[in-house]
Amino acid sequence: MKGIQYEFVKEIAVLSASGSGYTKEINLISWNGKEPKYDIRSFSPNREKCGKGITLTADEAAALLKALQEELNRGD
């Protein structure tokens, strides 16, 4: 990714893998030297390329976790 710097602060989990070797991951990443955020996106096997993703602050991640727990516990 040209012009964008990122540093993996903490590798959390691989959520899935495709046949082409891309992995969908959740990590704690610092983008362009800023405060690290939780990041969900796909990466190529060597992490030279990545897909579009979403970044979340700790508060946003907590709200997402709560919403998902409520949804999954609903059992519809």
From TrEMBL:
One of its GO terms (biological process) is regulation of DNA-templated transcription. It comes from the Bacteria. It holds the Pfam family PC4. InterPro entries: PC4_C. Residues 22-67 form the Transcriptional coactivator p15 (PC4) C-terminal domain. Coiled coil: none annotated. GO terms for molecular function: DNA binding. This is Transcriptional coactivator p15 (PC4) C-terminal domain-containing protein.
